[in-house]
Amino acid sequence: MTTPVAQIVDAAAYAQAVEDVVAAAAAYYTDGTSPLDDDAYDQLVRGIAVWEDAHPDQVLPHSPTGKVAGGAVEGDVPHTVAMLSLDNVFSPEQFTAWTASLTRRIGREAARFSVEAKLDGLAVAARYTQGRLTRLITRGDGIAGEDVSHAIGTLEGLPEKLDQPVTVEVRGEVLMTTAQFEHANEVRTAHGGQPFANPRGASAGTLRAKERAYTVPMTFFGYGLLPLPDTDTELAERLDGLAHSELMALAARLGVHTAAATAVPTVTATTVDEVLERVREIAALRAELPFGIDGIVIKADLAADQRAAGSGSRAPRWAIAYKLPAVEKITRLVAVEWNVGRTGIIAPRGVLEPVQIEGATITYATLHNPADITRRDLRLGDHVMVHRAGDVIPRIEAPVAHLRTGDEQPIVFPEMCPRCGSAIDTSQERWRCEQGRNCHLVASLSYAAGRDQLDIEGLGATRVIQLVEAGLVADLADLFALTREQLLTLERMGETSTDNLLAALATARTQPLSRVLCALGVRGTGRSMSRRIARHFATMDNIRVADAEALQQVEGIGPEKAPSIVTEIAELTELIDRLAAAGVNMTEPGATPPAAAIDDPAAPADTPDDRPLAGMAVVVTGAMTGPLESLSRNQMNELIELAGGKSSSSVSKKTSLVVAGEGAGSKRDKAETLGIRLAAPDEFALLVADYLP
């Protein structure tokens, strides 16, 4: 793996790079802003180091290499023990080389390593005197930091009083979770401020703010525990002898959040392969985490190994940060496109100057809705922070307001539907064409006829357009009123094609309720949610009389989604009546009507579910064979849920079973790592034989 490095061609470019890095570091460590994103900063620092290695006689005195925080900040509160940064590696080969150098330093292989997520926030030291939090200090230049004690009492996970009256210093990271970041931007913009560009910068700026008219929550996670000069001698000696993992266990007992208590708990490993496997596991979980990480920290766990390895002027030699590819980059918002979905939702999409994130070229990012654009104060020409992790759709976090030049322009919202020219319903955050589905009739009908909905063979988009333009079809119900005579009048519709289409429509009438509901395209529902609703209520009549409270009994439907589903089902009354009159099935095979849920919420629960997959979360990966070979992935999901399970697309600790077919890759590997039960397609087919189509 090649580590990206900024190319510096001469002394002038080197001097400029030094100035750029020092300025970026100063901005970040002062108020959380920076003209560079993390990846650009790291590449520039590596480029500086390469130049200096080749030209040692030209190193500038204010170069950031070898200095904590790039040498850009100073502090006024001395640290009792230097608060250093970490050196970085970017590949298994670089990590293996680092462990070899560690072995040479301590004269043998390290006994074991601790492995934990590298939380993306601001490092601070919290000093406790007799168990009471008395001072908060930033890392600063590693020798001294800034006093931010005004933030005492505002950080979740950092108690003002420990569970024991000890005098110690806890070091850790202050960050904003994803939820805290969204809340912080809502509060900040409500008070007239610009939104934060990302959670890390938001944490740095918020921690230092002393006189704001509002406060926003942040979270502390400890990663170090050490004695102070006035710590009890016996305790100080004990702390000096404890392994890192033992120190973190003690910090947790004292009442402090630690990195070990995150969604990616700290583990210990004894070999390089074990460490690298844990690195892969954490990297795979990154997109699902409720907070940002930018790597994994690996430390020699034993105190004796740490002392033998020692420390440099910038970083300890017994710890390293294994950096992951950046998931956030700064680029420019050049345009906004307004697209109309099949239900009439008008969705904005940001057009970006192309930027590489995790190996993919990103040119578009979601903008959610007009209210979100207004909340974030986005403008055309803005530098924006774009986030993408794993397969997650890229999103624009916020404008990088301090990079504005004054040439940025407001984003113009459409005054009429960009597809059909009708009026727009702006009563909700998500705008909608007043024509609803009729605005996008061809797309709506093609979707309804799709394989995962009514599966009407022979009714592709071209045929749908032909039917619409001929005036034969104006909505879904009209499809089931088509006659042989009408179809024979169409171009390229002979007797065989006509009879085949009518037969496919007859088959579509018998599809289960879950597919009919999915074909209707109710906002807030998709294939999986339609199955859950249909299996919960069993009949369309039950769905139509269910109120928002009853709908919330369905897994995945909360108090925000339920009312909109109720409203839309009511809006579809006439269409549903016509579908039923045309003979379209309105029941879900095998489902039992929830009389208790609808008529008497206090009634006792049904008898235990004895279906083979009851209570199990099941993931399907690879190509299915044998009895399952002809099933699409959606049909596999239907089979899982019919047999009592819950289908899922990702493997996690909550997964009960992974059905691994031919070519199963990373999901199978992850299941093996987590000790999750694996089943071949034939084995799974036997398990659910009674439910196979």
From TrEMBL:
List ligand-binding residues for Zn(2+): C417, C420, C439
Cross-referenced CDD domains: LIGANc
GO MF terms on file? DNA binding; DNA ligase (NAD+) activity; metal ion binding
Known EC number(s)?
6.5.1.2
Active site residues according to the UniProt entry? K118 (n6-amp-lysine intermediate)
**What start-end ranges are recorded for coiled-coil regions in this protein?**
none
According to its UniProt entry, the function of this protein is described as:
DNA ligase that catalyzes the formation of phosphodiester linkages between 5'-phosphoryl and 3'-hydroxyl groups in double-stranded DNA using NAD as a coenzyme and as the energy source for the reaction. It is essential for DNA replication and repair of damaged DNA.
This protein is called DNA ligase
What organism does the record attribute this protein to? Streptomyces canus
